[in-house]
Write a structure and sequence with these properties.
This protein has 335 residues and is of the alpha+beta class. It has six helices and 22 strands.
Length: 335
């Protein structure tokens, strides 16, 4: 790995940590809850509450990550725009169990057929995705809706993924998963409009420092959406081997986005100056991605970890759109 890469991944400008601390209790009884999982979504940074319901969790830099509070039998809470120095008091409500809704439309496919397509779209049809194993796939509910040709997936527990290729055990809590097909068929080629999945993710490192695993992580990272957003945060697309084009013409960073004067610390407010771009990465062969910015009159916030908001307004296509769970790295990778 070249020196410039090392400097980019581990470069520290200023220590300005974001720490969250607080107490979690039952909304009905006001009793503290022990063993609640508290973590930054998409990261390997997490903790659990002690017997007093107290927790403390920290990341080195301010960020746009969602703080997730989860415990069996309670409704999961997600805290966005986390204040930088506040003691949180979080009341969790009991989750009310309900009977599964009776579905009147027919489901023409077997569970085996649906599970195969689900795993390819969820984990990814890549080397990393194919190397993953879903430990508790029997907990996943799958249903094909013949009225609108969509495959839906849900799970009452976190989906547990063992990714030996990248050295992570991943817990993914499904909020929504849906594959939109053009016809009443599970065929993937030329038959899927798009795949939508939303949820929260926590990573556990199981690599034990294996250098081969670290080498695979680096290959996945370079040219990824997270790498690109981090390069934008640093204003360093060129040295990170990204090349932007707009209408077949090269575009520099200053013609792509402008930093706002009210940016503070690790959070940068930016305006994008166009809405359609093609992205190339010089170190990756057969690499071509696209970026569509749905609202260029919106102020976007980027953080040092590669998070951005509002996330739904940036749509990556081409190579970057192939990233699924099997090719994902935690947001704190490299820090």
């Amino acid at each position: 790995m070249k020196l410039s890469v090392v400097l980019f991944l581990f470069f520290i400008l200023q220590i300005q940590s974001q720490e969250a601390q607080g107490v979690i209790f039952d909304a009905k009884t006001n009793e503290p809850i022990f063993g609640v999982s508290v973590y930054y979504d998409g990261s390997s940074v997490g903790t659990m509450t002690d017997e007093d319901g107290s927790f403390r969790i920290e990341l080195p830099y301010q960020n746009r990550a969602v703080l997730v509070v989860s415990h069996l039998g309670y409704v999961t809470k997600k805290i966005v725009n986390l204040p930088s120095s506040t003691t949180l008091k979080i009341a969790l409500e009991e989750e009310i169990e309900s009977l599964d809704e009776v579905v009147l439309t027919s489901d023409p496919f077997s569970r085996k057929e649906k599970l195969e397509v689900f795993k390819l779209e969820f984990l990814g049809d890549t080397r990393g995705g194919r190397a993953c194993e879903i430990v508790n796939e029997e907990d996943i509910h799958l249903y094909f809706n013949s009225q609108d040709n969509t495959l839906l997936a849900s799970c009452d527990k976190p989906v547990v993924i063992q990714n030996e290729y990248l050295g992570y055990r991943i817990h993914f809590y499904i909020d929504e998963f849906k594959i939109f097909f053009k016809t009443k068929s599970l065929k993937r080629t030329d038959n899927i409009y798009h795949t939508l999945f939303d949820g929260t993710t926590r990573f556990y490192d199981i690599s034990n420092g294996d250098p081969r695993t670290e080498s695979r992580r680096e290959r996945i990272y370079f040219g990824s959406p997270r790498h690109f957003i981090r390069a934008c945060w640093y204003g360093d697309l060129e040295n990170q081997n990204f090349r932007l084009k707009k209408k077949y013409k090269d575009v520099g960073i200053t013609d792509f986005m402008e930093n706002q004067k009210d940016s503070v610390g690790d959070l940068k407010k930016v305006h994008f100056l166009g809405n359609q771009y093609v992205i190339y990465h010089r170190k990756r062969s057969n690499y071509r991605s696209t970026l569509t910015i749905n609202q260029i009159d919106t102020t976007y916030v980027l953080d040092r970890y590669g998070n951005y908001a509002p996330f739904e307004n940036l749509v990556f296509g081409g190579h970057m759109s192939t990233y699924r769970i099997g090719d994902m790295l935690p947001m704190d990778y490299g820090f």
